[in-house]
Amino acid sequence: MSDSDDDAAFASADEGEINDPSAVGGMATQKIKEKKENVEQMTKQEPQKQASGRNEGKGKNKKKKKGKNGGKETGGKTLTDEKLSAKNLTEEKVVKAEERKTEKPDKIQSETDAQKTQAITKISTLVDDKKSQDNSDKQSDINSDKQSQISLDKQSQDNSDKQKQDNSDKQSQINSDKLSQISSNKQSISQDIHKTVVSEVNSSKTDQEDSVTKIPVKPDNVSNNNIVTESPESVTIPRERDHTPEQEEVLENLTSAAEEQSSGGWGWGWGSSLLKTATSSVSTFTHQVGDGFTTLMDTVETSLGAPPPEEMVKDETISDTEKDEKKETRATNKPESQPKTEAQTKTLDEKTNTQTAEGADRGGWFSNISSLVQNTVSESIGVLETIGTGSLDVMEKIGKKTYSVITEHDPGFRKARQFLGNKGDKQNLSALLRDAKDETDQKIEMEKESEEARKCHFGCLFDDYQGLAHLEALEILSNQSEKRVQTLLHAMSEETISEIKPELLQIKDIFEIDENDDEATEHDFVKLVTDQLTELHLGTTPDKLNKVQEKTRKWLIDFHSESGDDKTTTITRDPKEIHRLAIQSLAELTSKSVEQFHKAGELILLQKDGEKSYLDRSKALAGLTEVLCTEVGILSTKFSHCLNTVGESKELSEVVNPLVTNIYLEATNSSTYIQDAFQLLLPVLQNAVIQNSDVLQ
Amino acid sequence: MSYAYLFKYIIIGDTGVGKSCLLLQFTDKRFQPVHDLTIGVEFGARMITIDGKQIKLQIWDTAGQESFRSITRSYYRGAAGALLVYDITRRDTFNHLTTWLEDARQHSNSNMVIMLIGNKSDLEARREVKKEEGEAFAREHGLIFMETSAKTAANVEEAFINTAKEIYQKIQDGVFDINNEANGIKIGPQHSPANANLTSPGGGGSQGGGCC
């Protein structure tokens, strides 16, 4: 006999014993006694069988389970003795026990058996459908894979911890719901188990069905009825025997799978330990659940199978008042379950003690779970007892309750599932952070580059050297002067205009410089600039311009002398450095040039001495522009030459070429700025000419 | 060195009050006892931070000489802030404030923030203008007032930054139209400014100051 079946039989026998004094028929009493003896014999033998079939620890477990049941028996005895309603319930149980007992000595095969089997199949399909519906509902939320079971177990552990503190009925009811949830989950894992359960339920159903059909005919002959109902049980028993190893197999698979996981890619130390604990607890827990399950199923059998027919019988025989009485007693049945539970937990504690010897680390955990299981089992019994009017209703209620518990009372389950299932997210998060860091690094790098680029950007440097501001100020002057010239010319008579026009046109001609594309030839910059400024006669000194030019030239001379003396020092020069310096020099020179023109413009407007003609000043300014542009050309050529020297020696033409191109481009820009600044002076000079002309006075 | 805003400042006041020294102290954090006469206008720039925003101050340091007045007036236009400086050791520079203020008000936009600065506060012994007088003048004309010393750098930073804060506040209040460059405010380029080509500010004012 298999464990579960054994337990089931035993439990039934217990129940029968409990109800012994209050048994209805004499035959029943007798049979019960016989059965009891039988069962006792069986229980003596079976642990040994188990021990041989499986490991010893498990056998011990089973023994303990029986011991527990025994405790239950004694507890139940005293309690149920006084209760009238218990009769109704236990009658059925007695019937069951008898059935099982009678099965073994003699196999009754009759026509009714065949009929019943048909009925069974019909009902079983019905129940199967119903169950599968329920199950599918449950399963939709209960992830049938191992992880979810582990998390589930973990949760029940949590719950059991909670229960330790507060062992209220409500909570235990939740736990019972959870147990049924777990049971259903278990069903989903092992279809065989499911089948067994269903068949068991079916058998109980058939019992009911049978009694429904037969009891009205022979209401008193319970034992006869029982004998008849043997056959469905005999159907289930071998099945269970067959499937229990399979059940075991499933569990083992589960454990091994979990262990594989734990040994496999689990990144977290605590995670793996948690999983191990979970795994071990799964195996033990499932055993317990298995045991509890059979107990539960028995109770289902007894509570679902028998009472309804009994009630039906009673409905016919017993008056309404008696019914009410029965209800009352049923209500009082509820508190009974609690003393029962106490007895159960007592025995369980014993069991736990031995188990802690096996695995000290999970001892505390285990007792929690065991107590939880016990509580939940007893609670579910209580629940089932109170509910039990129709088996389908019960199943429906269990299903609904389970579903609601999963959805409402078990939010952590989802969390656990996510936690265990989406460990990939962890990696994603770290990857995300790494990406963010890289991005920031890149940004900083880009900022640095842009800062570097700024240092090489002509426009930026031109602004930094205040060339832009001077150009802006010069533009203001130029624009104002132009407007003034227009206003003055409008105000002047034709005669005065014709008088002043030649000078204005001459100045304009001077300002039209031909684009000099000739190769810039070396010149004495300082001398030429100083000469032009002296010619301008504005009191401005070429200090700033000369300083910049001298500085740049000195660098270039140093560079060439270095390259002449020692080629290695030239090689070490960074092309970018040369480029940066070239652009810097050009920008500075251009800025100072624009500043010079700006100052000249201001002073031209202010100085009203007629010492120098505006024509000469214009020529000087034009000359200055030419010198500055030539200088820009020479500098760009020289810097490009430096770059090419470095590029040749370093074979970095790919790096150097764009830099050379850039230098030439910026040199063109520089020349453009200088010439633009010069052109801005035309209105200023014209304005000065008109204002200072004798014609105006 | 990108900035959120660029404010154009002008520094005005009688010659020799220390305008260029104030600028030098602000931009270079140094003091030159003897400074060349400013021709027309000189420039200085510095980055400051207000309310977490980078603001570039483009300062136009005008010549104080009377002869340059006609030219410097044309530079007032398009300034967001003005530092009107007088020398506390020279009463006449204080007396000329009204003329300067009128000039500034006439040739700039009405929203321009003006900071009255009594410079050379380090020369207490030679003080001719009491601080209270400066305060009273500022109060009377709706200016911000501060006594500074370009030599000791006392209040120099504060003078420039407080002016910038006032301008910034006006921007926040919507007084300044930042899109109108004639207000002396430019929105900073997002990055490396494009070729600084001939970007003319709102300098094309039609009614230029009398140039004669």
Automatic annotation (TrEMBL), chain A:
Q: What is this protein called?
A: Protein FAM114A2
Keyword Phosphoprotein listed: yes
Biased composition, class Polar residues, residue ranges: 40-53, 115-124, 221-234
Please tell me whether the keyword Phosphoprotein is annotated for this protein: yes
List the top taxonomic levels of the source.
Answer: Eukaryota, Metazoa, Spiralia, Lophotrochozoa, Mollusca
> Compositionally biased, Basic and acidic residues: which spans?
70-114, 127-144, 155-169, 311-339
Q: Which UniProt keywords apply?
A: Phosphoprotein
Q: Which residues form a coiled coil?
A: none
Q: Which family does it belong to?
A: Belongs to the FAM114 family.
Q: Where is the composition biased (Acidic residues)?
A: 1-18
Cite the residue spans of the region called Disordered.
Answer: 1-265, 300-365
Q: Where is the sequence biased in composition, kind Low complexity?
A: 145-154, 180-191
Which InterPro entries does the entry link to?
DUF719
Q: Where is the composition biased (Basic residues)?
A: 60-69
Q: Name one Pfam family in it.
A: DUF719
TrEMBL record, chain B:
Highest rank taxon of the organism: Eukaryota
Membrane topology designation: Lipid-anchor
- Keyword tags: ER-Golgi transport, Golgi apparatus, GTP-binding, Lipoprotein, Membrane, Nucleotide-binding, Prenylation, Protein transport, Transport
Give the Pfam families listed for this entry: Ras
Cytoplasm keyword on record: no
Gene3D superfamilies hit by this protein: P-loop containing nucleotide triphosphate hydrolases
Entry's Gene Ontology cellular component terms = Golgi apparatus
Subcellular location(s): the record lists:
Endomembrane system; Golgi apparatus
Q: Where is this region: Disordered?
A: 189-212
PANTHER family per the UniProt record, alphabetical: DRAB11-RELATED (PTHR47979)
Name of this chain's protein:
Ras-related protein Rab-2A
Species: Patella caerulea
